[in-house]
Amino acid sequence: MVQYQTARLDASFAALSDLTRRGVLEQLGRADASITELAVKFDMTLTGMKKHVGVLEQAGLVTTEKVGRVRTCRLGPRRLEEETAWIERYRQLWAARFDRLDDVVEELKQKDLRDKRSAR
Amino acid sequence: MNSNQESEPARMKNSTTVERKSDREMVVTRTFNAPARLVFEAWTKPELFMKWWVPRSIGVALRACEMDVRTGGKYRLVFGQDAAHQMEFFGRYIEVTPPSRIVWTNDEGEEGGPVTTVTFEEKDGQTRLVLSDLYPSKEALDASLASGSNLDAMPETLDQLDELLGSPASLGR
Description:
Number of helices of chain A: 5
CATH architecture of chain B: 2-Layer Sandwich
Oligomer: heterodimer
Largest sheet of chain B: 8 strands, antiparallel
CATH topology of chain B: Alpha-D-Glucose-1,6-Bisphosphate, Chain A, domain 4
Radius of gyration of chain B: 16 Å
Largest interface: A-B, 30 and 48 residues
Strand content of chain A: 5-15%
Strand order of the largest sheet of chain A: 1-3-2
């Protein structure tokens, strides 16, 4: 179970490490699109876009469905939820800490100013 | 003196960004509107450190905070509501260079704890803080993210934290 999860995570992070693929996910978050549309949007060859979509599909982030001659891509069932949730949680922890640190630093700064004034 | 306590409308806060820099590294960045020596001071004096390290949202109390902030020195943080329900975080400072850089180990786990590097870079009176958690392996970082990174995993709630965080500033000492 743990191994399975780790392998899935690896695939997800690998998929997310690429700027174009992140763009594709963002795009699909707004609306489903065909591979051709995505290729045009990202100014790529059809083959290149197929490859990117393949990586996303393997990671479970995107699903595709071929109807007639058109392959439509949409966000996969897992979407970005897990990964972004984890990263977001990590970010929130640090943001909360640093906002408080900001307050502490601000108090030090005020004290510093007062000390300087009174030293004059 | 305490005009910036939480009940007041908050000043505009600078944003905190997080990036997975590589398979093994998470990087957190934040800018402070103060010189580096003050940010460094708030980081390295235990009585100040305790005021901010444990945010309210975490809902856990910091029961003990021992920090010998110098190269080779050790630290130990104890969280939890009482001795029976506590969790310790500890490690060693590998490098301390005031006011610009602190590097420490996180040794509480069996293995795979990250090495944390925080740098304070001052420019035009502002300080850009960059904190990096470098894990020994990709698996270790994935596992840490999956487990919700340290404190999040602790469900205990404590009034003690409120008391601590709500207490009047004692910076004048």
